[in-house]
Each structure stands twice: as structure tokens, then as C-alpha cells.
Design brief:
Number of domains: 2
Distance between the termini: 62 Å
CATH topology of the largest domain: Chorismate lyase
GO molecular function: DNA binding; DNA-binding transcription factor activity
Largest sheet: 6 strands, antiparallel
Radius of gyration: 24 Å
Organism: Methyloradius palustris
Pfam family, one: GntR
Number of strands: 10
CATH superfamily of the largest domain: Chorismate lyase-like
Protein name: GntR family transcriptional regulator
Helix content: 25-40%
Strand content: 25-35%
Keywords: DNA-binding, Transcription, Transcription regulation
Length: about 270
């Protein structure tokens, strides 16, 4: 009887230990317990990116190190990283580890590029800066950027040109508080894409974007910039781009010619 009582007590102790382990991990993470554990780890990894612990292009700690840090299994960490890889936030390199995706990577720097020729091949237009000025946020821009109406912003207007032909008139707005010192001299000196410049100069990486498409007629400004007749058909693409934690960073309104090129979207 004493042996049976001892075995029962041991079984009870083991059961209490096993059931407590997930609670310990959840308490360590400080997130709602109803979320799958790997989702909690994913959010913790994302928070580390928001805090600047790992820069774009940097290798993150190993799965073993992260498992020890968060007091969970390596399998849970692996599943969390898998989710970030699927979101194009991280990438694995065979024999080298897991890296934070950078817009400098081939294939990543054109992730948001949608222009293609009639054969479906992506084209890479050059950017011609028209203006870069300080302004105040309209209601439309403020809502998209998650800032107060009247907040200081930086407005950028540029022309995207391919084979000497204007293709897109871009109107971009970002928060002046986020991009301190951004001006035309900096944009021209950098020479690369806006997303790459945000990353390299400000440590802000775009990870996703939302777009709304609409057919519009060219007004006087767009017709002159694009070299088309007034009321010519254009494709309007309104886009809000986000960084880690779904924070809106950039609002963009593009007016696109569609006679020789089209706007291509890939759906998973």
C-alpha cells in the first residue's frame, strides 16, 4: 500500500510539473495563454526586430539559443521562425543560419514591384525626383499613416521612367517625425529604391503593403508629367506600406500608364 501511495504521489508530481511548463513559458512571454505557443514566440521575435536587436541582413541566434532564452522547445522556435520565413521577414541559408531579410537582397528589393511588360517580365524603371517638401498631413494621409491630421509630413513626388518613357507619377508621404532630415539631397545621393533607403538610412524595413486599384482619367498635372492627353486612362494605385508590428510607414499614390505595360499581381 505504501508503494502504491508513493507511485501515485510521484505521478501527481510529474503531472503538475508537465502542466506547469507551458504556463511558465507563457508567463515568461507575457502574452495571452490562448495563443498557440509558437505564435507567442513569433511575436517575441518580431518585438526584438522592432527594438532593433537584429538589423536587416543580420543572422539571428540559433534555435537552441532561442529555445533557452524563451524556455520552450526547439521545435516551437522552429515553427515560429517558419512563420516569419513565410511572411518574408526572415530567410534561411543552408549551413549559415537564419537571417533578417533585407531589401538589399536580390529578389527582395523588388518584392513590391508590380510593373511588367506584355510578356509578363518585370521591368525596372529609374527614378526621377521631382520634389521633396515638408507639408502637413491631410485627413486621407493621416488616416493611412496613423498620425494626427495636420502632423508634419514629407511629401515626395517623382517620375518612374523606362526606356525614356514616363510610366508612373508617384506621390509619396511619410511622417517627418519618423524620417528626420529626409530631403531631396539625401534621396538623390542614395540613388536606390525608397524602401532600401528607409532600411539603410533609418533602420526601417517594409515588410508588407496594402493596395487599392482604381481606373482614373489624367488631370492636368498627371497628363503633363506623363506626356499624355488630358483625360487619358490611367491606373491609380494607392498603397500603404508597413514595418514590423503592422506599423504604417509610407503612403503612396501612383498614377500608371497601361498602354504598353501592365500591373502584375501574384496570389499565393
Amino acid at each position: 500500500m505504501q508503494v502504491q501511495a508513493s507511485q501515485a504521489a510521484n505521478q501527481k508530481t510529474d503531472s503538475q510539473t508537465n502542466s506547469a511548463q507551458p504556463d511558465m513559458a507563457q508567463a515568461h512571454i507575457g502574452l495571452p495563454s490562448y495563443q498557440p505557443l509558437y505564435e507567442q514566440i513569433k511575436k517575441m521575435l518580431t518585438q526584438s526586430l522592432i527594438n532593433g536587436e537584429w538589423a536587416a541582413g543580420a543572422v539571428i541566434p540559433s534555435e537552441m539559443e532561442l529555445a533557452s532564452r524563451y524556455q520552450v522547445s526547439q521545435g516551437t522556435v522552429r515553427k515560429a521562425i517558419d512563420a516569419l520565413v513565410a511572411d518574408n521577414i526572415m530567410m534561411r541559408r543552408q549551413g549559415k543560419g537564419t537571417y533578417v531579410v533585407s531589401h538589399a537582397e536580390e529578389g527582395v528589393k523588388v518584392r513590391f514591384l508590380r510593373l511588367a511588360d506584355e510578356d509578363g517580365a518585370k521591368i525596372f524603371p529609374r527614378h526621377q525626383l521631382l520634389s521633396c517638401e515638408r507639408a502637413i498631413a491631410s485627413k486621407r494621409v493621416a488616416v493611412r499613416l496613423g498620425i494626427e491630421v495636420g502632423s508634419p509630413i514629407i511629401e515626395i513626388k517623382r517620375l518612374l521612367v523606362h526606356a525614356s518613357q514616363p510610366l508612373i507619377l508617384d506621390h509619396i508621404a511619410v511622417s517627418a517625425a519618423t524620417f528626420t532630415g529626409l530631403d531631396s539631397a539625401q534621396i538623390n545621393a542614395y540613388g536606390g529604391s525608397m524602401n532600401s533607403m528607409y532600411e539603410q538610412a533609418y533602420g526601417i524595413r517594409m515588410v508588407r503593403a496594402e493596395e487599392a486599384l482604381k481606373a482614373v482619367a489624367a488631370d492636368e498635372t498627371s497628363s503633363q508629367a506623363l506626356g499624355v492627353a488630358l483625360d487619358s486612362p490611367l491606373l491609380q494605385v494607392e498603397r500603404t506600406a508597413y514595418t514590423y508590428g503592422d506599423k504604417p510607414i509610407e503612403w503612396r499614390l501612383g498614377l500608371c500608364l497601361t498602354d504598353a505595360y501592365h500591373y502584375r499581381s501574384e496570389l499565393d
